Amino acid sequence: MSDTSDPIGKTLNDRYRLLTLLGTGASANVYLAEDQTLQRSVAVKLLQPALADDEGFLKRFRAEARAVAALNHPNVLQVYDWGEEESVPFLVTEYLAGGSLSDMLSTGVRLSPEQVAQIGQQAAAGLAYAHQRGLVHRDVKPANLLFDDEGRLRITDFGVARALAEASWTEPIGAMIGTVRYASPEQAEGLPVDGKADVYSLGLVLYEALVGEVPFVGETPLASLRARQGQTIPHHPALGPLDAVLSEATEPESMLRLDAAELEARLASVEAVLPLPAPLPLQLRADVLDAMAVGTIAQGFRPPSADELTQATPAVTGPVTAGVAATRHGGEPIAPTVIAPPQVSSGGPELAKPRRKRRRWPWVVALIVLLAAAFGVFAVETKLFTPTVAVPHVVGLTNAEARQQLSEKQLAIRYRPTIYSTTVKAGSVLSQQPASGTLKQGSTVTLTLSRGLPPVTIPSLTNATCASATQTLAAVHFKTSCPPGLEAYSPTVPSGQLLEYSWGNLKNPTTAPYGSTIVLSISKGPAPIAIPSVSGSFADAQATLSAAGFTATQSNQFSNTVPAGEVIGTSPAAGNLEQKGFTVTVYVSLGQGVIVPSGLIGEDATTAGQALKRAGLVASFTGHGHTVVGLSPGSGSEVTKGSTVVVTIK
Q1: 214 touches 181 (CB < 8 A)
Q2: Quick check: 359 and 370 in contact, CB under 8 A?
Q3: Residue 543, domain member (yes or no)
Q4: Does 139 qualify as catalytic in the annotation?
C-alpha cells in the first residue's frame, strides 16, 4: 500500500480492498472494505502510521489482537483478521450498519427503561464474557456500542484501548484513550483497574441513554474526574425501575460495585417484569461515521469539548499552585476579604480619664466556666475519652452473627439496601464499611446484606434438544439435567426435542435464580400404538396395517394349516406397541410343505421314483442309466406338496 494518504481502492494483504472511508480518528481510520476471498463486506480499522514506529505498541497490539480475535460472543464485535501493511497495523472486523449508541443519542433521543434494560443486559453479557477471559475494555462509551440492522448490540475496540494506553506515541489533544466523561473513580485516581471499571462506565452510558446527560461532567476533564470521586449518581425520575441497579453499577467504591455478570442478572430481572421494548431508533446509513473508530475527533486540530476529551487522567495530588485566584461561576474573580488594622489617631494619644476600679475575678471565673463547658462539649462530640476498639471482619457471616460481634465491640449498625450476590447467600453480610481499622465505641459500621442469587431470564428454548438447551442455558449461568425418567411421549413435539422444563416445582418459568439447575424433559415423540390383527390375503393385511399407520412387508412360509396365499401372522405379533410408521412383516402361507427324501443318491432310479411318490412329490428323470446321481431340489429341502423333483440318473 504505497499511497497511505489516499488508500481507497488499495488492497491490504492481497485480500481486503478498501472501498470508502467510514470514519476517521486521531488513532485510526475505518474503511468499508470487500473481503475478496469470502466476497463479503467488512470493516477495516487502519491505525495511524505514526504508531508503526512504536515497537512497544506493536508488540502489545499483536498480543491484544490475538486475544480479541479469540472472543466469540454474540455481544462482542467479531474480529475476523489482523495484520500489518507496510508496517501499519490494521484490524478486520464484521461490518455493522445499525450505527452506534452515540449516533442515537446525538439526535436527542432518550431511550425507555425497557430499551435500556435490553441493551444494558446485552452489553453486560459481552463484558462478563470478556472479563472471564482476562480482558478489560477500559473505554466503554456510546461510540463503542454498535448495533446491527436488527438492533443487536456489539461491543467494539476490546484490546485497542490497552495497547494504545501503553504506547509511547502521544495522541492529539482531545483524542486520548479512555473517555474522561465515562471514566471510573479508580481510573481518575490512576489506580489499577479491573472489570468493575467497565461496569461503572457502562452504568454512566445507560444513565445518559435514559436521562439525556452524563452525571459528573464539569467544565474541564479534571473537574469531571474530581466530581465523581466518592459520589453516587443523582436520582432522576427518568431512571424509573433502573434507579437502584444503576446506583449499584456506579458505586464509587469498586468493592461494593456490581460486576458485569451481576449487572447482567440484575438487568435481566428488571427486564423480565417490564413490557416488551419498542424497536431501537437505529441510525441505518451506509457510512456509519465514527462507528468503529478508536477516537471520535476528525483529523486536524481544534479545541476539544468536554464531551470529547478522553484518557483516564492521573490523579492530582499535592498542594494547589499558589497565586491562583478563586473564581465565581462564570469566571468572575472573588475579591479577597481584607481585615483592616487598628486605626491610630494622628493627633496623638488622648489624655486618660480617671476610671473607677473594678473587680476582675468574677470575669475570670466566668471565662473558666465557659472554657470548661466548651471543653466538655468538645470531649463529648469527639468521644475524647471513649475507648477505641478494632472493627471485626463480619463479611460472609449471617446477620445475627455480625450483630453479635459488633455488639460485643459496642459498635452500632446501619444497613444499606440489600444487593443480589452470586457468592454470598441470602441474609449474610456482603460488605461492610469500614472493612477494618479501629473506631470509637458507639461508632457506626455500615453493612450490606445479600439478597441471594439474582433472578435471570430463561432464554427461548423452542425446538431445542438436550444438548442445545444445555449450551444455551450455560451461556446465562444455568446448569441443566435431562433425566431419562422424565422423557415423555408427545403427539406434537418430535422425538429428541424439549417437551418442557422446570425449576423446583415451577413448570416453564420465565426466570430462575442465577446458577440454578434447570431440569429438562425430552419428548419421545408420539405414543406407540398396538399392531392390529390381520387376516386374508397380503393385500387385505396391508390395507389394515396402513390404516393404523404402519408399513407392511411380505414374507412367505409353508403351512400345514393355512391355505396357500392366506396370512399366517405378523412380526411383531398383533397387540405389540410400536410407533407409527413402523414396518410390520406379514407372513403369507405357501401351503403344506413336503421334505424331499434323503438317501436317494446312488439308489436305483425306480426306487427313487417310488420314494418321491410316497412323499407326495413327482419325479422327473433326466440323463441315461439307472443310478441316481442328483436331485433338484436337494434332499432335505421343503417344497410344496405335489411339486416336481428333477432326478439326474447315470
Answers
A1: yes
A2: no
A3: yes
A4: yes
Q: Which of 573, 589, 605 is the last residue of a domain?
A: 589
Do 494 and 623 belong to one domain? no
Tell me which residue of 641, 636, 642, 644 sits closest to 601, measured CA to CA: 636
Q: Residue 128 is part of which domain span?
A: 11-273
Span 49-62, pLDDT tens digits:
777 677 777 777 77
Quick one: pLDDT band at residue 377, thresholds 50, 70, 90? low
> pTM higher than 0.70, yes or no?
no
Question: Is the residue at 413 inside a domain?
Answer: yes
233 CB neighbour count, 10 Å cutoff = 22
Q: Do 393 and 409 sit in the same domain of this protein?
A: yes
In a domain, 346, yes or no: no
Same domain, 151 and 100: yes
d(CA 539, CA 533): 14
Residue whose entry in the numeric block shows the C-alpha cell 418321491: 612
Residues 489 and 619 in one domain: no
Catalytic residue among 81, 103, 139, 157: 139
> Which CATH number do you get for residue 541?
3.30.10.20
Q: pLDDT for 239-288, tens place per residue? A: 999 999 999 999 988 888 999 999 999 998 888 778 888 899 987 654 44
Is 325 among the domain residues? no
Number of CB atoms found within 10 A of residue 432's CB: 23
Q: Contacts for 612-619 with beta carbons within 8 Å, 24 or more apart?
A: 612/645, 612/647, 616/641, 616/642, 617/641, 617/642, 617/643, 617/644, 617/645, 618/642, 618/643, 618/644, 618/645, 619/644, 619/645, 619/647
**What does the pLDDT look like over 450-498, one tens digit per residue?**
888 888 889 999 999 999 999 999 988 999 999 999 999 999 999 999 9
Domain boundary among 522, 539, 570: 522
DSSP annotation of 346 reads T
